[in-house]
Amino acid sequence: MNRDDWCGGYYELSMEFSPVENNDRLSKALNNVSMLSFVEFTAPSSLDSSPMFGTLSIMEHGKLPFMITMIKCEGEPDWLDVSIPISKIEEIFSIQYPLSFVNNACLEGLHQCLTMLAETVYVQSPFQFAMLGHEITGLTDHQSISIENYEHVTFILPRTFQTKLGVNQPLQSQLQHLHIINV
């Protein structure tokens, strides 16, 4: 992969893990990612190696590179971000901006892969919540989230967190443990 492939914007899955500093949970999350049939990724033996790279197979569309970054700050929640370069998405799909699943039905396969990845991670390494969208890393956290204030973001919420937020939107999820809400 060319270094230039990683310049520019990203379509991201960002998962917040709390309480803080639980390396075992992050290791399990990375191991679960590596076991998915549509993912080519080898989980590292140490959490010191960030970023990590792999590819997603998007059904008949081919493969997209991704980068996993762990964001760890003392006293703050840990984050696991899966980022796909927009330039690579544009090579496969004809997309419209703002870049969202709602505006680009062609991204359905990518969206399904990333939500399945989130579900797989959640089963072994529960997270507070996750977001999926264009350049969403750092957009909000579980303490300040207010879904009605965001557009073009998909929120992936554990059922208990959805109730806590008082979200009354119809659910758009086929996942066993999580609810998907497109805004």
Keywords:
183 residues; alpha+beta; TATA-Binding Protein; eight-stranded antiparallel sheet
Task: Give a written overview of the molecule.
It is a single chain. This protein is of the alpha+beta class and 183 residues long. It has one domain: 2-Layer Sandwich (TATA-Binding Protein). It is 23% helix and 28% strand. The chain contains four helices and eight strands. It has an eight-stranded antiparallel β-sheet with strand order 2-3-4-5-1-6-7-8. Strand 3 and strand 4 form a beta hairpin. Helix 1 packs across helix 3.
CATH superfamily: Kinase associated domain 1, KA1
How large is the share of residues in beta strands?
25-35%
Proportion in helices = 10-25%
Q: Structural class of the helix and strand makeup?
A: alpha+beta
Reconstruct the topology from this structure:
Layout: E1 10-17, H1 23-34, E2 39-40, E3 52-58, E4 62-71, E5 78-85, H2 86-92, H3 108-124, E6 129-134, E7 153-158, H4 159-165, E8 178-182
Antiparallel strand pairs: 1-5, 1-6, 2-3, 3-4, 4-5, 6-7, 7-8
Task: Provide a compact summary of the structure.
The chain has four helices and eight strands. It is α+β, with helices and mostly antiparallel strands and 183 residues long.
